[in-house]
Design brief:
The chain contains 21 helices and no strands. By secondary structure, the protein is an all-alpha fold. α10 crosses α11 and α17 packs antiparallel against α19. The protein has 2 domains: about 230 residues, no CATH class; about 230 residues, no CATH class. This is ABC-2 type transport system permease protein.
Length: about 500
């Protein structure tokens, strides 16, 4: 019921926004409808893969009726029109049609574009359900769905922030106009671009119509072939279920590195000690703005600093992750696990957490700054800080682990230590990442203060430096792990 209400509410809001475009120029209406229509079309393809919902119209359910492929394929497409998402899409198409009709586009052209657009969405959704049933297990784990959702967030949020930050001033921004010009002749946007190009008097409108017709025909043929295959091939019974309770172990590859990654993901998701470390990062990053603002640094520059510190903290975070294993590290040593799978597998959780966070934080920071030309520089600096930190952490966690609280104890309770054994590796990793990232940070500063051309240099230098330090760190940490495995066991037993 909650999902139904959310869909209805979102449809009403978006429909109201579409109808509000009637007073805008043809260029603005076209840019928004083409871009939004392409995003919706892509969403119809991705949603069945991400949500992992069982398909009630799976062609394999109709095997017992011995139906011909062609009538069944057409019937399933028509039946898909009775779903709530398709009803919401049709409502939005009608609202867009009303706006385009007031702009002077003929009813015939609007109906043609609407039918082609809806058919494209339906066929993509049908193909996505069928392909997901073939490639994935029948009961996909929520971990896999979560990973796919993270990938979409990494793409969608930066794009949304970029669009929201554009300065329209009654006209379409140049960057968006160029993007729409390309999308208009792709299978995702051709149907939605046909009315816009007609209203603008462009002769290429018929090319967009031809692309849309070819797209629908190709998707229809692919859907028919998929239905025929599923009706005539028994690759796996529809009711087959995978073993339950494996969690991340059912998602990662069946390799030593995959096993380490799965175990680390379980710890990062359940152990309070890891969770507390993660929660500290946003607060620590935001606090860095306070002294800068007090010192008189402009706000549009200060807003860029937290994301850089967040990248540094994320890279620094696993510098002592081996110590959090406590005596469980004996499984790695006793099984003869080599250092490389251990070092690589332990980096997977922090990468899966940091990449989406930074993918959202970077465009938000750049949007608040107001100059998108410096975005490559900020990305390059973040890559260098994050990857360099991971590389140094891969060495530190195995070369100089220090005692931490035992599993199940309060994360705020620190064990007794002698000397500065814990402070030294922390400082080495953090200061080392800053020093190694000095070149991209310097070029980032130049892109902010003098020449924006330095942004591209900052990006490539940050990417190159980060990847190089990560590779060297992982390989060095692997060699140290192989050589110090006995001492690692002694450390775990002593703590």
């Amino acid at each position: 019921m909650l999902g139904l209400l959310l869909v209805v509410a979102a449809t009403v809001v978006v429909a109201w926004g579409v109808l509000g475009l009637a007073s805008s120029s043809v260029d603005v209406i076209g840019a928004l409808t083409v871009f939004a229509g392409s995003a919706v079309t892509l969403g119809f393809f991705l949603a069945p893969i991400v949500t992992a919902i069982s398909d009630p119209l799976d062609p394999r359910r109709f095997r017992v009726f011995a139906l011909p492929s062609r009538p069944l394929a057409a019937t399933l497409v028509l039946a898909s029109l009775l779903s709530l998402p398709l009803f919401a899409l049709i409502v939005l198409v009608v609202c867009a049609g009303i706006v385009w009709a007031e702009a002077g586009v003929s009813i015939l052209a609007l109906v043609t574009a609407g039918v082609l657009g809806v058919l494209t969405c339906v066929l993509l959704a049908r193909l996505a359900h069928g392909l997901a049933a073939m490639m994935f297990r029948e009961r996909r784990s929520r971990e896999l769905s979560g990973l796919l959702l993270v990938l979409i967030v990494v793409v969608v949020v930066p794009v949304g922030v970029f669009l929201a930050s554009l300065d329209w001033n009654g006209a379409v921004p140049g960057a968006l106009a160029e993007a729409v010009g390309v999308i208009s002749f792709t299978p995702l946007g051709a149907a939605w671009a046909f009315p816009a190009l007609l209203a603008a008097g462009e002769g290429t409108a018929w090319l967009a119509l031809a692309v849309s017709i070819v797209t629908v025909a190709a998707l229809g043929y692919a859907w028919l072939a998929l239905v025929h295959r599923q009706l005539t091939t028994i690759d796996r019974p529809l009711t087959t279920r995978e073993r339950g309770g494996l969690g991340w172990f059912s998602v990662v590859p069946g390799t030593p590195a995959g096993a380490v990654a799965a175990r680390s993901l379980v710890y990062w998701g359940r152990d309070r000690r890891y969770l507390v470390n993660l929660l500290v990062i946003p607060f620590a990053a935001l606090v860095t703005m306070v002294p800068l603002l007090v010192a008189g640094v402009p706000l549009n520059v200060a807003v860029l600093v937290p994301v850089l510190f967040a990248a540094l903290f994320f890279g620094w975070l696993p510098h002592n992750d081996l110590a959090y294993d406590s005596t469980a590290i004996w499984m790695h040593v006793a099984s003869g696990l080599r250092g490389l799978p251990d070092r690589v597998g332990r980096l997977v959780p922090i990468v899966l957490i940091a990449v989406p966070v930074l993918a959202i934080a970077v465009p938000v920071s750049v949007a608040l700054h107001g100059r998108w030309a410096i975005a490559p520089a900020i990305v390059g600096a973040c890559l260098s800080l994050f990857l360099s930190g991971l590389g140094l952490s891969s060495i530190s966690s195995v070369a100089a682990p220090y005692p931490v609280t035992s599993p199940g104890e309060s994360p705020f309770q620190q064990p007794q230590r002698t000397g500065s054994s814990g402070a030294v590796p922390q400082a080495v990793v953090m200061i080392g990442a800053l020093v190694l990232s000095a070149p991209p940070l310097w070029w980032t500063w130049l892109s902010l203060t003098s020449s924006v051309d330095a942004a591209e240099l900052a990006f490539w230098s940050g990417l190159g430096m980060g990847v190089f330090i990560l590779f060297v760190g992982v390989m060095t940490g692997s060699a140290v792990f192989n050589r110090r495995s006995r001492r690692i066991m002694e450390f775990a037993a002593a703590t």
